[in-house]
Amino acid sequence: MTVEKTPLDAEMMQRARELIYDKVAQLQGVSMVEIENLLNENKIVSERDPDMVHNIHGESENIIFWLSDNEYVTKAVTSLIDEKKIFPHITTFLVYIIDRKSLTLPMAKRNIQYKEPHWVPITLCTYPMPRKRNKK
């Protein structure tokens, strides 16, 4: 027996995107915990399935920025990143310790192709992360 998942509500998705963008534009450096809390406080929550976790990942499938059981979190953030309205900035895991929530995945320490999922803690800003200059 296949259980069909209820599709995400378009109006709620648009509201989630607006709330996220406004929060990031106002504060800069917003953690994924703050995003989850923001949507939960505004009752923007997808159908919870304990067997389904949605992720936001980097260029590699095994570089994980965040895992959530609220699909509005992952879809809204991913779409805003894809549209270059918000940008992920690598941060210290201490941000997530302060927010009292982190992932249990091993942390990525280098920019390589990992065979297993690794976490890269990020914050969100409305401007791209500065590129490192090459030393001459």
Q: Assign a percent range to the helix content.
A: 25-40%
| Spatial order of the strands forming the largest sheet | 1-6-4
Summed up, the domain count is 1
Could you name the ranges where pLDDT drops below 50 across 5 or more consecutive residues?
Answer: none
Order of helices and strands: HEHEEHEHEE
What is the radius of gyration? 15 Å
What structural keywords apply?
single chain; about 140 residues; alpha+beta; 3-stranded mixed β-sheet
Draw up the topology in text.
Layout: H1 10-27, E1 30-31, H2 32-41, E2 54-57, E3 63-68, H3 71-82, E4 87-90, H4 94-98, E5 118-119, E6 122-125
Please explain how this structure is put together.
This protein has one domain. 33% of the residues lie in helices and 16% in strands. The chain has helices spanning 10-27, 32-41, 71-82, 94-98, and strands spanning 30-31, 54-57, 63-68, 87-90, 118-119, 122-125. Strands 1-6-4 form a three-stranded antiparallel sheet. Strands 2-3-5 form a three-stranded mixed sheet, with helices on one face. A hairpin with a 5-residue loop joins β2 (54-57) and β3 (63-68).
In short, what is this structure?
It is built from four helices and six strands, in the order H-E-H-E-E-H-E-H-E-E.
